[in-house]
Amino acid sequence: MKIGGASTRSIWVEPDGWSVGIFDQRRLPWAIERLVLRSVEDAAVAIADMATRGAPLIGAVAAYGLALGLRADPGDEALAITYDRLLATRPTAVNLRWALDRMRRQVMPLAPALRVAHAYAEAARLCDEDVAMNRAIGVAGLPLIEAIAARKGGAPVNILTHCNAGWLATVDWGTATAPLYLAHDAGLPLHIWVDETRPRNQGALTALELAEHGVPHTYIADNAGGLLMQQGRVDMVIVGTDRVTANGDVCNKIGTYLKALAAKAHDIPFVVALPAGTYDPETATGADVEIEKRSPDEIAFTTGRTLAGDQATIALTASPACNPAFDVTPAALVSAYITNVGLIATAGQLTQLA
Ligand code: MRU
């Protein structure tokens, strides 16, 4: 996709052939700045501090982080320490463990001298596969939008999304956004309601993406969705996810559950887009997933741009704050899962992703 007018992926190997480039998402959408990761610690801090974010991209950064770690020391002990350091960065998105397990499985049987080259090749493969899976999600989700468009006879299809499950949260295309981009490119009339997604305002990243792609959209307060659904101004909700458990429960950004409840009340399809690496058949239900608790400061302070154009952080309250970063939407509220192997109607069929 494009940012600042230039086509790019969200992660790349720098021209030196080994350090890893990402966008600093703490600075978006106000400034497009790149970060160069040169060590495991750089990768771990980037994930934990949310310089990089979004379940599939966290997995990709961790994969390259493991390669960076092996570059410093390809031995067994260092590999174990690197794996643990990266896994400890964030608890909820299962793509992190999925990517690290995949990397370790590939390099572990090799002689240490062969591990670095193999790790870089595997991380690159993982990234290419992410792009292909997200495009496949787009293809699988497109008919849902086409069906609504046909029913509406030329009026825009209104889709609500929460958080950023766009290309900035993956390697390219995004999960929830892939069907939107394909629908827009196919000429279907679309309008996207973009939840701001307090407290980190990932909706501003979704809005940036949609603006660059020319997709009509409106940025809304997180609590506006209920009213819009009640007024018949939402045709479908599409969200991404950080983990779908064996029973089909969906862990995603805090606030997702309330959107699912409202959608159910108004008989609006609530669909979840996910690639294979986000499915966690080893965890029985959403209740078994660790929900990340982030710093209360993310609630008590907010960051934006002053009229003079500088990024600034201001306090909103001095009261105690509580900041769970994700919630669990029960499978019963999910109308369908849009996946890289096609549209899945029931949680039982998710095993196709394993
Ligand atoms: O805390 P974040 O910004 O990493 O949370 C991101 C989300 O919740 C996304 O919706 C999810 O990871 C899917 S990204 C394709």
Write structural notes for this entry.
By secondary structure, the chain is of the alpha/beta class. The protein has 2 domains: 2-129, translation initiation factor eif-2b, domain 1 (Four Helix Bundle (Hemerythrin (Met), subunit A)), CATH 1.20.120.420; 138-353, Rossmann fold (3-Layer(aba) Sandwich), CATH 3.40.50.10470. It is built from 10 helices and 18 strands. The chain has helices spanning 40-48, 55-72, 76-87, 95-107, 112-152, 177-185, 203-213, 225-230, 256-265, 297-300, and strands spanning 2-3, 6-7, 11-13, 20-23, 34-37, 157-161, 190-195, 217-220, 236-239, 243-245, 250-253, 270-274, 279-280, 301-305, 311-315, 326-329, 336-339, 342-344. Strands 8-7-6-9-12-17-18 form a 7-stranded mixed sheet. Strands 13-10-11-16 form a 4-stranded mixed sheet, with helices on one face. The two termini are 28 Å apart. The structure holds 5-S-methyl-1-O-phosphono-5-thio-D-ribulose. Residues 53-56, 93, 163, 165, 169-170, 174-175, 202, 240-242, 252-253, 325 line the site of 5-S-methyl-1-O-phosphono-5-thio-D-ribulose (MRU).
